[in-house]
Design a protein that fits this description.
- 40% of the residues lie in helices and 14% in strands.
- The chain contains 15 helices and 13 strands.
- The strands form 3 sheets. The chain has a 6-stranded mixed sheet. Strands 2-8-7-3 form a 4-stranded antiparallel sheet. A 3-stranded antiparallel sheet has the order 4-5-6, with no helix packed on it.
- β10 (316-322) and β11 form a beta hairpin.
- α14 (426-438) packs across α15 (447-460).
């Protein structure tokens, strides 16, 4: 392979292990909203206090300290609410630790790149594998100052990691910083305060298998009635027995409603969360549950009916259908989306494009979709790409993590497998081997369409290029065929012609089928050398 890196093996992506659905709580009375706000504020304060205690413990956390915190919360709420709060606290602390580790790796990568470039002479050209030296003394000086800043940040982050110290903000760091930029956010202080308090509320409960309807704290009956077990300090607000408050609103899950109904009918665990969308002024209830781990289909089974290769870009998916031998079928398909605007708009655009892609895959009858296993975690820094700001924006705009998670979840519901392939050289080799041969007056092939073919062939286990190297003797096929995608036993592959020496002239072939006699050539080049050529007269006789 020369200087090319080794390609990773393709694999079938495991399916989703959880489900979450949401419905709006409509027609709530003022008393309902008052109770929900009181419960959220009370339990949110308990969650903040518990998170503070957990962060103070650091690496000294153990089962005894967990039990002590849960006992303290049980006295002011209930055992189930205390369990839900402590579990949410641990999940948030663990997430902060993972983010801290990723931040340290990113700083280390930037420091490594800066040290390498600073060690090179000014103006030295870079290579495909590493960047070159800086262009001027002023740029070298600025980068040396940036190196010192990154080293200081890295040392501080490593010290926090070793001490088990994390930085967590209940409600979100971004919303907290918005408090200092209310004019730019077009918010008043009261509007910001309302959002901040709503984000810090805690109205959630974990499911319990074997309990009535799968949850004792937030109970939802099959007919959509929602009731909440109130903490001891808010028991006077109850309107039902056993310190429960029943909302006037009824819910009906339009998506996966039958699956949810089957679970609560069998008293299987279902977790619930109630939250307020301050911007819309609406209350929502989210139900979630875990699924048993389902064994993914074997890779050979996923390849049996062909593959759809998908190239992910900043504004569209470029997809191409291939048969099991790696041959393109039909023309390219493009599924555009717009990633500008709000996060909800971007999410809706991705979801709509994936829906159309999956519907097309079902219509053509394939069993799997091949996609690149993209990860731009270490590729977005300006230390690596320097002045190429537009390129950094390009790779930052390509959806990767959320796209893969959503595609796997949506494809699993339609019975489709997702095959992840190594993204190395797909665009380069696809354009080199497939873009020009497939371009016709009626079909325009882009580099991204050709990359989709390369991805699909790699997912099928075939090399990207169409043919192998020519045989050693000459350009005929005496040393064997050059097709790369079909095995000798496959029907319909390009094979040698049956020999014509084993049958008499005009007789049947060895297979039993009569073949047409070779006709005399009409070209001068192929005519025998002994033939006499006579030029016709140019005189007109009639």
């Amino acid at each position: 392979m020369g200087g090319l890196r080794k390609l990773a093996a393709s694999f079938v992506v495991p399916g989703p292990c959880g489900v979450a659905i949401r419905d709006r709580l409509k027609h709530l009375t003022p008393q309902d909203e008052k109770v929900l706000r009181a419960v959220g504020e009370h339990q949110g304060a308990l969650a903040s206090r518990d998170l503070k205690s957990r962060c103070a413990e650091g690496l000294e956390h153990n089962a005894d300290t967990w039990a002590a915190r849960k006992r303290a919360l049980t006295g002011v709420s209930s055992s189930r609410i205390a369990g839900a709060i402590t579990k949410a606290t641990h999940d948030q602390w663990a997430l902060a630790r993972r983010c801290q580790a990723a931040h340290i790796r990113k700083l280390a990568a930037g420091i490594k790149t800066l040290r390498h470039r600073l060690s090179l002479p000014l103006g030295e050209r870079g290579t495909k594998r590493a960047a070159g030296g800086y262009r001027s003394k002023s740029e070298w000086f600025r980068k040396s100052r940036r190196l010192a800043a990154l080293e200081a940040r890295h040392a501080a982050a490593v010290a926090d990691w070793q001490a088990g110290r994390v930085r967590v903000v209940r409600g979100g760091k971004r919303l907290l910083n918005t408090r200092h930029h209310l004019t730019e956010a077009c918010l008043t202080e009261d509007q910001w305060r309302e959002r901040w308090e709503a984000e810090r509320w805690f109205i959630a409960a974990d499911g319990e298998s074997g309990k009535r309807f799968g949850n004792e704290t937030i109970r939802v009956t099959p007919d959509g009635e929602v009731s909440i077990k109130l903490p001891a300090s808010l028991a006077h607000l109850a309107n039902a027995r056993h310190s429960r408050y029943t909302l006037t609103s009824r819910i009906a899950f339009a998506h996966r409603g039958a699956e949810w109904s089957d679970r609560i009918g069998a008293n299987r665990a279902v977790a619930y969360r109630i939250h307020l969308d301050v911007e819309r002024g609406r209350w929502y209830l989210t139900a979630s549950w875990q699924r048993p781990v389902v064994q993914t289909i074997p890779l050979e089974t996923a390849r049996a009916r062909g593959m759809i290769g998908v190239d992910t870009n900043t504004d569209h998916f470029a997809a191409y259908r291939l048969d099991r031998h790696g041959n393109p079928i039909g023309g390219p398909h493009r599924f555009p989306y717009d990633l500008s605007g709000t996060a909800d708009h971007r999410d809706a655009q991705i979801r709509h494009a994936l829906t159309r892609l999956i519907n097309w895959a079902r219509r053509v009858g394939v069993a799997a979709i091949g996609i690149e296993d993209l990860d731009f975690t270490t590729e977005k820094t300006r230390e690596k790409h320097g002045r190429h700001k537009r390129f950094r924006q390009l790779i930052s705009g390509i959806p990767t993590g959320k796209l893969k998670a959503r595609l796997v979840s949506m494809a699993a519901e339609q019975g489709l497998a997702i095959v992840a392939v190594d993204p190395a050289y797909t665009s380069l080799w696809g354009a080199q081997h497939w873009q020009k041969p497939l371009t016709t007056p009626h079909r325009k092939m882009s580099r991204h369409d050709a990359a989709g073919i390369a991805i699909g062939r790699r997912a099928l286990g075939h090399p990207v290029r169409r043919r192998t190297a020519p045989p050693p003797h000459d350009r005929s096929d005496r040393a064997g065929h050059r097709t790369a995608q079909a095995a000798p036993g496959d029907r319909g592959r390009e094979g040698t012609r049956p020999p014509a020496t084993d049958r008499p002239p005009g007789g049947p072939s060895p297979s039993g089928k009569r073949k047409r006699e070779p006709s005399a050539s009409n070209t001068v080049r192929d005519a025998p050398g002994t033939q006499q050529w006579v030029q016709d007269s140019l005189m007109r006789t009639g």
